[in-house]
Amino acid sequence: MTSYADRIWPLGAQHKLIEIDLRSDTVTHPTPSMQRAMANAELGDDGWGDDQTVNNLQEKVADLLGKESALFVPSGTMANLTSILTHCQRGDEIIVGDQSHIYYYEYGGASSFGGVAYRLLPNAEDGTLDPITVKASIRPDTPRFPRTSLVCLENTHNRCNGAVLSIEYINSIANIAHESGAALHIDSARLFNASISLGIPAKDLVASADSVMFCFSKGLSCPIGSIICGSSSFIEKARIVRNSLGGGMRQVGVIAAAAIVALDEMIERLAEDHANARRLAEGLSLSPEFIIDPARIETNIVIIKLRDGNAQELLNTLAQNGLGASKVDEEHIRMVTHYGIYSQDIDRALKILDASIK
Ligand SMILES: *Cc1c(COP(=O)(O)O)cnc(C)c1O
């Protein structure tokens, strides 16, 4: 296993080695205590329900989020797809944001694997969908229309600057969905970033959702893994769907052990990532080349509009100077703070950014 202290990540043949990697919080490696827990995990065959470590993890998460049951899955994409396929039948429609990860990055899985159609609504800059439009988009329950079985929200919102949805907003969308017989799923890959930013327990943020998923492999620094929570009957069905997608695993305690450590040790520290993201945004806002409002940085994702566009050219220059960032589109780049990035790295990143636009 590579030690995290070895903070060097190759970015591809055209680049030198990256010194400060802000491409994503997924670049984080397991912490030393995760590595110890992984090495010493009690294991069994989860196909037979025998892996005590993953059983413990699933119980711990269900308890933490106030849901009846939880299911460990290999990735966030599989968590969302499994949830959608569990809620929906072929020919159903789901309401998702046009900037949502589910729509934008998950390869149309709901359609290609489940025969489910996406009804896209525009995401506002703060990651919300307009409640009136959501209400109007849920199909009336008549034989003339497909069934709208699910509304999906994203919290924090990846493509909307890591924006956090308020509890009042989430509950209002849940009410609208439930009044019309639709379920609410929350893609909360970065649930604990939302919780820490708002100062509200994660449990409260997902109380009105029928299903929720979050990732261990992002800011919580685990190598692999996401989890779905919901009612016992939902999770029972989801287990079959996950397994049918090839997501059943065997001695999965090897990775579940890291996830347990993440829950105990990696949640509170997310506040540091938020402070670093804000520091980065404040530094950038001093330059006329970068268009950014630091007040809008609520979590660990910083999206910057480039006055002169040409995101790819800037990314190449940054990489040559040792800073990893990622592209949102031609005019926007993204930087994400995470475990292993310190305030002095932010100062260095600002210097590199400043030098790269000259
Ligand atoms: C990363 C991410 C996912 C998917 O997770 P993977 O493990 O990369 O498949 C889903 N939703 C959001 C909001 C994400 O940021």
Q: Would you give an account of this structure?
A:
By secondary structure, the chain is an alpha/beta fold. Helices cover 40% and strands 16% of the residues. The strands form three sheets. The chain has a seven-stranded mixed beta sheet with strand order 2-8-7-6-5-3-4, sandwiched between helices. A four-stranded antiparallel beta sheet has the order 9-10-13-12. The longest helix is centred in the C-terminal third of the chain and has 16 residues. The two termini are 40 Å apart. The N terminus is likely disordered. It binds pyridoxal-5'-phosphate. The site of pyridoxal-5'-phosphate (PLP) has 12 residues, from helix 3.
The ordered string of helix (H) and strand (E) elements is EHHEHEHHEHEHEHHEEHHHEEHEEEH
Q: Which percent range describes the beta-strand content?
A: 15-25%
Q: State the major sheet.
A: 7 strands, mixed
**Average pLDDT for all residues:** 94
Radius of gyration: 20 Å
Strand order of the largest sheet: 2-8-7-6-5-3-4
Parts with pLDDT < 50 across at least 5 consecutive residues:
1-15
Overall 3D shape? globular
Enumerate how many helices there are, as a single number: 14
The set of bound ligands, ions and cofactors reads: pyridoxal-5'-phosphate
Q: Give the N-terminus to C-terminus distance in angstroms.
A: 40 Å
Secondary structure: number of strands: 13
Helix content: 25-40%
Structural class: alpha/beta
